[in-house]
Amino acid sequence: MLWLFPIVLLIACVRADASANLKAGKVQGTSCRESQVNSFLGIPYAEPPIRTLRFAPPVAYNSSYPGGTLNATANKPICVQFGGATQPGYLSSPSSEDCLYLNVFVPASATTDSNLPVKVFIYGGAFVNGGTADPLYSGCDLASDAIVVTIGYRNGPLGFLALEGTAIAGNQAVKDCLMGAQWVQDNIAAFGGDPKQVLVFGESSGAAITWIISTMPSAPSLMNAAIAESGAGLGTQDNISYFAQGQEYAQALGCNTTDISCFQSKSVQELNSAQPVIPVLTLTSIGWRPFVDGQFIPDQPQTVPVKVPFLAGSNADEGTFFALGAYDSPTNVTEADYTSFISQSTGSYAQQVMQAYPLNSYNATSVVSPIPGYAPFYALANIITDAVNLCGTRRVLDITTQAQISTFAYFDAHTPKCTWEVTIPASDLKLLGAAHASELQYVWNQTVDLPPPNGNCSQTSQEREISQVLASAWTAMAKNAKPGDVNGTAWPLYSMNNTQGLLISNSTSVGSINYTICDELWDPYELARLQNATSATSNTATSSGGSSAGAPTSTSKSSGGAWIVQPWSMVMYIVALIIGVLSL
C-alpha cells in the first residue's frame, strides 16, 4: 500500500496550497476556517474606475500583479454605497471607488483538471448598495461541489449615471458585471472550474442585472444558465426619461453636462449629497438603474427572451419588507394610506385593485398570520408582492419559454426561523413571512451561526433540507442547465399552460404556482400601462420603471441631504422604485 502515499501527499498539498496561477501572476488565497474550501478574495478584473475612468465603462485588468503574486487573503473595499444611513455589518466595511474585484471560493481538493461547475453571483441592493464583503455571500459553506464567484460592481450614480451626448453613457454597473463574467471565462480553469458550466445568478437588483445580461446576444458565450431571484422583470427606463434624470443630477452637482472633468472632480460626499430625496409615496421614477440606451441595451428587456436556460422565482411575502420599512410599524398603516397608495399608484385601475385586495379579506387572516388590525399593512404588502415580483417574474418566464428556451420556476412561501442579515430583527420574522431576500440563506447554504457571520441561530432540520435542495439545484443549473430532481421527482419545465415549479414551504415539493392574479389584474394593467406610455408625449417614460406623468416633477427635488433610507438599508428607496413600477 506504499504506492498510495504519494497520492495522499498530493491531495494534502493541494488542500494546503490555496493558490492559482493566472496570466497576471500567482494568486495566493487562504483556507476557510470551518470547511474544506479555499477562498481567493479581492482579485481585480478591471482597472480601478477612478480619475479619468470614473463613470467610464470598465477597462479590463491586463497588468501583472506587483511582484508576481497577488495577496488574496482579505476582502478589498466594497464599492461606494449610496443608500444613505451607514449600517452594521458589511455596509460599514471600508468602501472605495477602486472596487472592481471579485471573490472566488474553491473546493480545497480541486485541481486544474477538476472541471467543476461555477456559480457566479451578482448581489442586490436597489442599485445603490451591496457588496461582496457581506458575510451572507461567503462561499465557504457553498463551494463544496462547485466554484463560487462574487462580482463587485459600481453602485448609484457611479454605476448608472447617464448624460446625453457625452462619454458618460450609463449602464456602467451592468458592463462591470459583464466584464466580471468574461473574467470567469478567461480565468476560472486555473482554479479548477469549467468555463462551459457557468451559472450566473442574482437576487433583487442583482437578479435584474442577471436577467438583463442573460437577454443579450453574448449571454451563451458567458453562461450555461441564469437564475433570477425576485428581480426578473424589474423596470428599466427609456433614454428620454433617464437623460432627464441625469440632467437634474448634473444641476444639483453644479456641473454642465458636457464638462466631464467637473463630474470627475467631485468628491464622493458631493456625489451622495446631490442625489434627489425620494418621498416614500411618490409617482416619480427617479432612481439609479439600468436603462434602455438603444445600443448596449437596445430594447426593453421585458420584450426580449432570455438566451440561456433560465430559472426564476419570487417569495410569497416580498412586500412586507418594503411596507414595514416605509411605515415602521404595521399599526401605522391606515385605511386612508391603503386608499391613497392604490389611487396614486394605479390611477384608473384603482377600483379594480381595491376589489382584488379588499381590506375585509385581511381582517381574519393576514398574509402571514392572523394579526388583528394589520389589514391595510398586509393589503399593501400583497399588492407589491404580486404587481412587482410575482407577475414581473411570470412575464419573463412566459416570453422565454415562448422562445423555446428551457425555463423553470419556484415559489417560496416559507417563513424562516432565523434572520439572514444583522439589520433585520429576529422579532420581525413572523411579521415578515417569506419576505424579500429570505431565500438567500438557503441558496447560500448558511445553516448555522445566523445571521452570519457570528449569529446564534441555526436552521431547523426541515430548513437544512431546503438549503440542500436549493444549493444542489443551483449547482445542477450550472452543470446541466436544469435543476435536477426534488426528493426524487424531476423539477418540471415551466410552460404557459402548465405553470409547474418548485414549491417551498416547510418542505419542498413540485406543484403548480398560482399566477391567477397576474392573468386577471396585473398583466392587463401592465399592457395598458405600456400602451399608455407608448402613446404619451416624449417626456413620458416608456419602461416599467416610468411614471405616468413623464419626467420627474418637483416632488423629487435635489437636496443637500443623502438619499432617504430607513434603518433597514435601502427599503424606502426600493419602495419609491416600486411606486414607479406601479404608476400609470
UniProtKB/TrEMBL annotation:
Claim: Transmembrane helix is one of the keywords in the record: yes
Stretch forming the signal peptide: 1-16
UniProt KW Signal keyword: yes
Ranges where the record places region Disordered: 537-560
PROSITE patterns assigned to the protein according to its UniProt record, in alphabetical order: CARBOXYLESTERASE_B_1 (PS00122), CARBOXYLESTERASE_B_2 (PS00941)
Annotated keywords: Hydrolase, Membrane, Signal, Transmembrane, Transmembrane helix
The name this protein goes by in its record: Carboxylic ester hydrolase
